[in-house]
Amino acid sequence: MAPLLLVEDLRTYYVGFGGTRVVKAVDGVSFSVEAGETFGLVGESGCGKTTTCHAIVRLLAPSARIVSGRIELEGEDLVPKSQGEMRRIRGRRIATILQDPMASLDPLFSIYDQVAEPAYYHQGLRGRSLRVRVKQLLDAVRIPSPELRMKDYPHQMSGGMRQRIVGAIAQAGGPRIIIADEPTTNLDVTIQLQYLNLLKDLQRATGVALIFVTHNLGIVAKMCDRVGVMYAGKIVEMQSVRGLFYRPRHPYTRALLDSIPKLGVREALCGIPGQPPDLADLPRGCSFHPRCPRAVDRCLDEEPKSHALNGDGSVRCWLPIGEPAANG
Length: 328
Known about the structure:
The chain is α/β, with parallel strands linked by helices and 328 residues long. 33% of the residues lie in helices and 23% in strands.
């Protein structure tokens, strides 16, 4: 059975004025998402996670170009679609939750207007039916007194409530898959937990699939079934969540896990040396080799290809963890 979403060899570049500078933000990314699954994308800032998500829904900046690849939603390639065709797909079949609700909520329109729009446009609801649907959506995301709060405006809501409203908007068109791009970034820890539990409850109730983008590996452990680790525009490791935490294979994944503080353990945190590379001027060979403690001569000269792991997963490394280190 075909996956709900299939991304194959996606390459999305930002082209500077006159084509003098090309930023390879997404450089050969491939993954799939099954119905009802939660797939995580993790990595440092600037590694291409958000650009990958924007490319999937075709909401890229004017300077960005999808150079090659396929994005199949239920077997239908989205890359050649016009913006008019994508407007009928976005919200109805695939939706997004952005990390900053104040940037995605219009301050000039009431909560009712903004939650009702996808249901009006994609489901054809009108009048009382539309009002009932909006109330149901606000109830589902646990907005108290929805009949009263739907008349309010975004500035009258707390940060946590605004994030829930954005979640209600994403659900309003009845999509099969939702992309959540760091939706808990601006929330405190208690509200984060409430919001994550809410997303899980909504997923169980509707069967919607999730792509969850985050820096927080603790959130990955709680939310995701599988995870892809991104570095310099590529997925360098993909595994089940259990496999990733108990047996990481890429040195970058191991470094990310080692940088997490552990409760009750008194030891210095391990930082990753150096800085992420400039995506417009990537180093030769493996992009991670200047920061990698296992790098050998081959890593400096040849870019590693992705190869399958035993079981379900892949790694892009000449010398994955679990194989003996070489001297040259």
